[in-house]
Write a structure and sequence with these properties.
The protein is mainly α and 489 residues long. It contains 24 helices and four strands. Strands 1-2 form a two-stranded antiparallel sheet. A two-stranded antiparallel ribbon has the order 3-4. Strand 1 (7-12) and strand 2 (15-20) form a beta hairpin. The relative contact order is 0.16.
Length: 489
């Protein structure tokens, strides 16, 4: 039987932190160590990184969950408690999973309707390799600030930028890194962002104080990011510029290209700016794209299937490959539809199993509290917060938990050190929000990889803003730059 008196729950923004007094730190770390060892073995010692087949990462996360469950049983946590927490985790990602399905449908219908080819067609004429990467950072940042969502940015302009850059001969990992850097900068600085509202709520400060204080570390980081991408753009060896005329001709011969096609993405972005729910906005984007496909791309649909209607349905649900007279474009103009998102969705579901069980047995709270216990200095407190956020992004596979749990656990410690709450809220964002996309099995990493069609391993080194942010916040703490103290009344 479960010894329920040893379990306490603190409800915060529909999230709860479970503390199990029966559990010690070593036991809490056992599932984490085993998970990391299995993942490392698959990455470094298995040639095709498919130890157990195509869904190896999913199986490894489930194995980690079983180990965590065994630790929980040993420490008197009931099976029903674990299932309940896993169910809560699954409920929390239901909407993101629906969004992923719609993004898959969107990619398919935007392809057969000519929207993505039109973006590539016009983008090739405007963006050159010499300015492409820093321009991609800026475009993604603007859209993300306006929408408050890095996910929406990737699903719209991100897909287009990867297509344009790939046609120019730029490595997809570079483009994805630029898009993600800009998207997460905008996500952090937008008052419309959920994480930008959640971090100050956890720390005990207000939204606009948080944004202003966060700009102190965020602006220098994005400037460095832009400089690095400008240098990379000026030195990359591409053949895209010489092939542009052939690429444009191939697109023009395959699709009907018109500025009218931009009505669909324009309407979707406008709906998001008007705070329409993403599921509705993306769903309308799929329907409008299907209508535009019938109107503008009859020949394309006829070549894909005997029935134009079947071609549309296939683009929504399954693989679509449009052949052109250019091999590079034929590879680019393909989509997996909803089916292409299954791997990513299963990864998220399995990650929520592992994170849910780890939370249910009290391991997440125990690890965070242990980090807090060693934070004797001001810098140590900042460093412990950063490590806690990074660890929870990897262990709990969810950026919200990486903000909520350290936010709750470290709030009093910052007060005791005489530090204003915006120090904590800024650190939560600098290390919790932006690093989530660097973990392949985290919901954010899985989403961005699935949507942009680029693995986390390929874009990791180019997501410059994301991995520089925690170092920037630690540097400012070490040098005592803009570390605001509590005002004594």
């Amino acid at each position: 039987m479960s010894n329920e008196k040893n379990l306490s729950e603190i409800h915060i923004e529909d999230q709860k932190i479970i503390d199990n007094k029966e559990l010690n730190l070593l036991e809490s770390l056992i599932p984490v160590v085993i998970l990391m060892c299995l993942l490392a073995y698959n990455i470094f010692f298995v040639e095709d990184q498919e130890w157990f087949g195509a869904y190896t990462n999913q199986y490894i996360l489930l194995m980690g969950g079983l180990v965590a469950a065994a630790v929980g049983f040993f420490n008197k946590v009931s099976f029903s408690s674990m299932i309940a927490e896993v169910w809560e985790n699954w409920k929390s990602v239901f909407v993101p999973i629906m969004i992923l399905f719609l993004v898959g449908a969107l990619a398919g219908t935007w392809l057969v309707s000519g929207i993505i080819p039109a973006m590539v067609y016009y983008g090739l004429q405007v963006l050159s390799p010499e300015i492409f990467l820093p321009t991609s950072v800026i475009i993604a940042a603007i859209i993300s600030i306006a929408t408050g969502s890095s996910w929406t940015t990737s699903a719209t302009v991100g897909i287009a930028l990867v297509g344009i850059g790939s046609a120019l001969g730029i490595a997809p990992g570079m483009i994805a890194g630029a898009v993600i850097s800009g998207a997460y900068f905008g996500d952090k600085m937008s008052p419309l962002s959920d994480t930008t509202n959640l971090a100050p709520a956890m720390a005990g400060t207000d939204l606009f104080t948080h944004i202003k204080y966060m700009a102190i570390t965020t602006v220098p980081t994005i400037i460095i990011t832009l400089i690095v991408f400008a240098i990379i753009s000026g030195n990359i060896d591409t053949t895209g510029s010489a092939d542009i005329s052939n690429l444009l001709a191939s697109i023009d011969n395959t699709f009907y290209i018109s500025p009218w096609l931009f009505l669909v993405p324009g309407i979707v972005i406008a709906m998001i700016l008007m705070k329409t729910k993403p599921l509705i906005a993306l769903g309308i984007g799929v329907v409008l794209a299907a209508i535009f496909a019938f109107i503008f791309q009859g020949d394309v649909l006829a070549n894909l299937s005997d029935s134009k209607f079947s071609s549309i349905i296939n683009s929504i649900l399954t693989d679509t490959n449009i052949e052109t007279d250019n091999e590079k474009l034929s590879e680019l103009f393909s989509s997996g539809g909803m089916n292409g998102m299954i791997w990513t969705i299963l990864l998220i579901i399995c990650a929520m199993v592992f994170g849910g069980i780890m939370d249910a047995v009290g391991a997440l709270a125990k690890i965070t509290k242990s980090l807090l216990a060693v934070a004797s200095s001001v810098f140590g407190l900042f460093a412990s917060t950063v490590v806690s956020c990074l660890g929870l992004n990897a262990i709990a596979s969810d950026q919200y938990l990486a903000i909520v749990i350290p936010g709750k656990m470290f709030k009093k410690a910052y007060e005791d050190k005489g530090l204003a709450p915006e120090n904590l809220s800024r650190t939560l964002e600098d290390s919790g929000t932006v690093t989530s996309v660097l973990i392949p099995w985290n919901t954010c990493g899985a989403y961005q990889s699935g949507v942009l069609g680029v693995s986390v391993a390929d874009y990791f080194v180019y997501a410059i803003f994301n991995y520089l942010s925690p170092f920037t916040t630690l540097l400012f703490a070490a040098l005592n730059i803009k570390i605001r103290q509590l005002v004594k009344k």
